[in-house]
UniProtKB/TrEMBL annotation:
<dbReference type="InterPro" id="IPR050166">
    <property type="entry name" value="ABC_transporter_ATP-bind"/>
</dbReference>
<dbReference type="InterPro" id="IPR003593">
    <property type="entry name" value="AAA+_ATPase"/>
</dbReference>
<dbReference type="InterPro" id="IPR003439">
    <property type="entry name" value="ABC_transporter-like_ATP-bd"/>
</dbReference>
<dbReference type="Pfam" id="PF00005">
    <property type="entry name" value="ABC_tran"/>
</dbReference>
<protein>
    <recommendedName>
        <fullName>ABC transporter domain-containing protein</fullName>
    </recommendedName>
</protein>
<keyword id="KW-0067">ATP-binding</keyword>
<keyword id="KW-0547">Nucleotide-binding</keyword>
<feature type="domain" description="ABC transporter">
    <location>
        <begin position="17"/>
        <end position="250"/>
    </location>
</feature>
<dbReference type="InterPro" id="IPR027417">
    <property type="entry name" value="P-loop_NTPase"/>
</dbReference>
<keyword id="KW-0813">Transport</keyword>
<dbReference type="GO" id="GO:0016887">
    <property type="term" value="F:ATP hydrolysis activity"/>
</dbReference>
<dbReference type="GO" id="GO:0005524">
    <property type="term" value="F:ATP binding"/>
</dbReference>
Amino acid sequence: MPTKLTLTNFYKRAPLLKVSNLSKSYFSPKGEMLPVLDKISLNLYKNEFVSVIGQSGCGKSTLLDCISGLSRPDQGKVNLNGIDITGSIGMLSYMMQDDVLLPWRTLEQNVMLPMQLGRKFNKYEAQERISRLAKIFGLNKFLNYYPYQLSGGMKQRVSLMRACISNKEILLLDEPFAKLDSLTRTQIQTWFLRIWRNNKLTVLMVTHDIDEALYLSNRIYVFSAKPAKIIAEINLPSISPKNVDNLLKPQYISVKKKLLSILHLNSLKFA
Ligand SMILES: Nc1ncnc2c1ncn2[C@@H]1O[C@H](COP(=O)(O)OP(=O)(O)OP(=O)(O)O)[C@@H](O)[C@H]1O
Ligand SMILES: [Mg+2]
């Protein structure tokens, strides 16, 4: 008889991404050692939406840099499907915090850029894929537009589309909605949740916005101030479908209070 997929069984499966004991230090301009990540271990399961939350400067982008292979950790491992990918670039899609669109390239040319860097680039196929995805992202009428001709929300969708086009198993997102005004942000978040659900994506997102983490995630890891340690892991109530009104429900309000107290206590401790 097939095993029933309960929450407990879900987390008994092997994780798609396993980060173990990741540590990273930088050197300050004065040459002093600056520990940023302190033995971070976390798991990401297929089709999950997981957030990492923590105050500014605690090491969230550094974590994604290390997971993506852009930066090499001093210690620790990153495993994808059981294979060690520590320090390997291009295994995961990564939308960086300061992801910029090149102003001299059209929307289509911007999205095409990471594909052009790949070895098996075929322009005709790339255009086909972009055209298909642009319909999903509501951007099909703007493929020939330059970034200055797009609104802030549209540019954000182009960056997300560029991250999604590579069809990698995991999408790493660093503050993907932070530059949007609050009304547009909720619209784009709701739209992205639909993309995540319909396309069965697996997402690890970094944010310092508590409501954003509560609205979008299945699970949240909470980081301490620098050097970042995981100080809490929170499973969110599984109210389906995810809806922004959920944030007003008692289950969510109690999780929000818990998160606020953990973050507040921690920031006082490290101030
Ligand atoms: N390449 C680097 N060289 C030296 N120090 C760095 C480097 N990159 C990051 N840092 C330092 O590491 C610390 C963590 O930076 P990081 O960008 O990971 O923080 P963050 O949590 O993403 O912050 P924010 O929420 O503001 O984006 C900061 O003190 C930063 O100055
Ligand atoms: Mg950052």
